[in-house]
Specification:
Strand 4 (55-57) and strand 5 (60-62) form a beta hairpin. With 234 residues, the chain is an alpha/beta fold. The chain has helices at residues 19-33, 104-120, 132-139, 154-157, 188-201, 203-213, 225-228, and strands spanning 7-12, 38-44, 50-51, 55-57, 60-62, 76-77, 81-82, 92-95, 125-128, 146-147, 167-168, 174-177, 180-183. Keywords: Signal.
């Protein structure tokens, strides 16, 4: 049954998150919000602009982007709240992925936020896209859960602290375990969100939004990338 009170979504952002991890799902959610009450918070460590797909701090490129052909080719996004003053009683915590997830020191505050909120103010849903699952695994909230992640980074995600407590599903576009929704890489997040919209608001709504986006949606088991990367379920 559709929610009547505003759905409160908190998306965690950090330098070098992947654009489509966040903006693909947000496109669907923006359309959903035209018909259903929703609030969105973009949450980071500070209110400083966040560079996308590259880590740019004080005009200096760090990490993998520093060695690219176009180190300053990026967009920026402005957070609307910090981890310290983020709204309480969020209905959804949304964690995108990207190369920034590999900077474990920089993302530790986000990991701590996930752990604290799930323990003390449990959201109705936790969503992760791509390597955002690595942050959730590090927080411990995925322990004992089925989950998936980006197939190109699948083996790396399985090395982070806490990942050995997770049952990782290699061949899956997205995985649902209770109120935990985790997707494979990048574009898979949009398929997951369309699946979530169907779950929460019904098939008519998810189809209305999918058609409006001209999106050819894939099902949970439509995952050719697991085979491409030579992955098997363990």
């Amino acid at each position: 049954m559709p929610l009547t009170a505003p759905l409160r979504i908190g998306a965690l952002i950090f330098p070098a998150f992947t654009a489509l991890d966040l903006f693909g799902p947000l496109q669907a959610l923006n359309l959903l919000s035209l018909a259903h009450p929703m609030n969105l918070s973009l949450i980071s460590t500070t209110l400083d602009p966040i560079s996308i797909d590259r880590t740019i701090l004080d005009g200096v490129v760090h990490g993998m982007g520093a060695n690219s052909s176009s180190p300053f080719f990026t967009e920026y996004i402005l957070p609307t709240a910090t981890l310290e003053d983020a709204p309480h009683d969020l209905d959804v915590i949304f964690v995108p992925g990207g190369s920034g997830t590999r900077n474990q020191a920089a993302t530790q505050p986000h990991v701590d936020f996930i752990r604290d909120r799930v323990q003390n103010e449990p959201p109705k849903y936790l969503w992760t896209v791509c390597t955002g699952a690595a942050l959730a695994a590090r927080s411990g909230v995925l322990a004992g859960k089925n989950a998936t992640t980006n197939k190109a980074a699948f083996n790396w995600v399985k090395t982070v602290e806490g990942a050995d407590e997770v049952h990782w599903i290699a061949k899956a576009r997205w995985v649902v375990d209770g109120n935990y929704w985790t997707s494979s890489g990048v574009s898979a997040g949009t398929d997951m969100i369309l699946g979530w919209i169907e779950h929460e608001y019904g098939r008519n709504e998810s189809e209305r939004i999918r058609i409006g986006m001209e999106w050819n949606a894939l099902d949970q088991t439509d995952d050719p990338f697991a085979e491409i990367y030579g992955l098997v379920d363990s």
